[in-house]
Amino acid sequence: MKIGNILMECDPQGKKLVIPDGITHIEEGLCDREGFEEVEELVLPDSLIKIGMEAFYGMEKLKSIDFGNGLEEIGDGAFACCDGLKEIKLPGSINWIGESAFENCLCLERVYIPSGMSSDGTGYIGQICESAFRRCRSLVDFECEKRVEDWGNEVFASTAFEEFVCPDMMERHIYLSERIFEYCTKLKRIVLPRHLQEIEQDAFEGCKRLNEIVKKDEEWQEVEMENGILV
Q1: Which of 61, 16, 20 has the alpha carbon at shortest distance from 44?
Q2: Is residue 168 helix, strand or coil?
Q3: Which of the chain's ends, N or C, has fewer CB atoms near its CB within 10 Å?
Q4: Measured distance CA(221)–CA(167) in Å, rounded
């Protein structure tokens, strides 16, 4: 199967799609064509650096992704509305997750990002952009071993967390972005980073069950807020 300049391997049933080694970039809207409706497994090469905007948008039967070991950038909406995904493990090389990259992946339960370095030696993620995991209504587990420089608004809005312990790699953050946990209606408890100083007033808007906010420190004590500011 050939799309654009990419010759791709697809099994006879059309359920496994393999992007060949040597490809470094995937174009925008790559799979926005007929013939990909039955794909359940996607295999990306270690040579791949960037996935374009909405490249795999709306592949509803996609269940498994092997991201390879060299991916650095996931474009806006690249995997949005891939309802069959339950778990993703991104490579340690990742340093940018675009706006709405995985939004509306309704069955996604777990996200894991290990530590690692990108090709330029960067050991952190520059940004997890706005709404990256918004409306992932089954998401209950997010583990990130890399420092994230910037968290966009609504990153985890309308997810299924009951408890969220901010990753150790959020320790440098002094604020929580706008609506980051908006309408997480199952959220009951959150553990904040040690150095957090400011919470946007609408960070927890619609979190009706949230009754315990704890700040990571030596004693893990409950914190007090006044107009969204830690006091």
Answers
A1: 20
A2: helix
A3: C
A4: 17
Looking at 160, 176, 203, which one is the last position of a domain?
160
Same domain, 115 and 187: no
Total number of domains in the chain: 2
Pull the structure tokens for residue 76.
């806006």
Give the C-alpha separation, 19 to 50, whole Å. 13
Tell me the CATH number at 106.
3.80.10.10
pTM comes to: 0.88
Q: What is the DSSP string of 109-155?
A: -EEEE-----TTS--EESEE-TTTTTT-TT--EEEE-SEES-B-TTT
Q: Which two tokens stand for residue 92?
A: 């340690």
Cα 103 to Cα 58: distance, rounded to the nearest angstrom: 10
Confidence of residue 224 (pLDDT cuts 50, 70, 90): low
The encoded tokens of residue 75 equal: 């474009």
